[in-house]
Structures are given as structure tokens and as C-alpha cells.
Design brief:
This protein is of the alpha/beta class. The chain has 8 helices and 12 strands. The chain has one domain: Rossmann fold. It is globular and about 45 Å long.
């Protein structure tokens, strides 16, 4: 099996190499738990290897300043390899995914949808949850098939809902059939740069394996 490395050693270790190519990985957790950091860092590592990332920024969290901070001497090379798309609403996101196969080329090795549930949560439609189920059923399999076709890893991120220890990704019932790897992210403490990652699912295996990582750039030999 091929992987797209996150560039964060503890995560690549627990993921047995990185994000699996041709499959979908779900990163979920509360705000500032590291979802966007991991996704952007993986895109940066790919860029430095000469490959491109398609980053669908539904949450409007993609910030070029993060790349400038992590890789100040290489950011121009990285910017050339990351395509950022920002859907305005739920309908435009559906249109983007519908026509995506026409524009994705072979050098795209990572497709990120950050955050998959944001536009659903912000929708004021009375039947928003039904629409999200329909969206997941029709569009996410297309996204995964596209990943298989161009040998790209698919990364979805989601925030959380629930309380009293019963925390799950937003709209989990809609997403569950389509994600093969599930990684829950948490902050170690309020002001700490350390994050906790728990691998809950790895294809057909349910797990509860934890690692700690720091939100900073990690060395890599090219």
C-alpha cells in the first residue's frame, strides 16, 4: 500500500506510513486541535517532493502565513504546488466535487476537504441534514474514486458534536460508510502546542492507539 506522509513522525508511525492512497482518512476534533495543521503540513511535504495538492477550503482556515512560518525559505516553491478552492456555500461545494474529475491531473497526490461538515452546519435549510446525507452518498464516493484513479490520498476533516464523553464527528452517520481511517485529535491543554492523536479506525480494525505530537515543522531530508 502506498501512503502520503503527513511529515509528522508520530502520526506517520501510527498511520503505518501516512495517509493511505486511494482511500479516505477522517481527521476530527474541536477547534485548534490540529486538523488544518496536519493537512497543510502534508501538502507542504508533497510540494517539496514536486507533487501538488488540491485543497478545498470550506472552513476558510487555509492561511499562507502558516506555510511561511513553517517553511520560510521554501514557501514560494510550496505555494506553486497547492491549489486552493473556496466554495461559497453547500451548493457550490457540490458543484466543485461534481466537476472535479475534469480538472484533476496525475501530479495531484493529495485532496483535502477541510472541513467536510462546515457548510452543512452553516446551512439554514430546514432539510440540511438530509441534503448532507445525499451529498455524502453521491459526492464522497466520487472523490474517493478520483483518489484511486490518480493515486492520491483523500483527507476529510470534521469538527465534533456531543458531550459527556460521547464525542463524535459532525454528521458521523452520513460519513461513516465512506471513511477507512479515523483519527481523533485533541489539545493536551489550553496553551500547549502538544496535541493528542487517537487512531480509532484503520480499515476494518477498530483501535484506540494514541500518540502525541507538536505543532511545528519537522526536519526532512530531500
Amino acid at each position: 500500500m502506498k501512503f502520503v506522509r503527513t511529515g509528522i513522525d508520530p502520526l506517520d508511525s501510527i498511520l503505518m506510513g501516512g495517509f493511505p492512497v486511494g482511500s479516505s482518512t477522517l481527521l476530527y476534533g474541536p477547534s485548534e486541535s490540529g486538523k488544518t495543521f496536519i493537512s497543510v503540513n502534508a501538502a507542504c511535504k508533497l510540494a517539496l517532493l514536486g507533487y501538488r495538492t488540491l485543497y478545498i477550503d470550506a472552513d476558510k482556515k487555509f492561511d499562507p502565513k502558516l506555510i511561511e512560518k513553517l517553511y520560510p525559505s521554501r514557501c514560494s516553491k510550496i505555494f506553486d504546488k497547492i491549489i486552493v478552492v473556496r466554495p461559497r456555500d453547500f451548493l457550490s461545494l457540490s458543484h466543485i466535487l461534481l466537476y472535479l474529475p475534469e480538472y484533476v491531473e496525475e501530479d495531484i497526490k493529495l485532496i483535502v476537504l477541510d472541513t467536510v461538515s462546515t457548510l452543512y452546519r452553516l446551512s439554514r435549510e430546514e432539510n440540511a441534514y438530509f441534503y448532507f446525507f445525499e451529498f455524502a452518498e453521491k459526492q464522497i464516493p466520487t472523490l474517493i474514486s478520483l483518489g484511486s484513479l490518480c493515486e492520491a490520498a483523500i483527507v476529510l476533516t470534521s469538527q465534533v458534536e456531543g458531550f459527556n464523553g460521547n464525542i463524535k464527528p459532525v454528521a458521523w452517520n452520513a460519513l461513516e460508510p465512506y471513511v477507512k481511517v479515523v483519527l481523533r485529535l485533541e489539545r493536551l491543554s489550553l496553551n500547549s502546542r502538544i496535541r493528542v492523536a487517537t487512531l480509532e479506525k484503520y480499515f476494518d480494525i477498530k483501535l484506540n492507539a494514541k500518540v502525541f505530537f507538536e505543532m511545528e515543522a519537522t526536519p526532512w531530508a530531500y
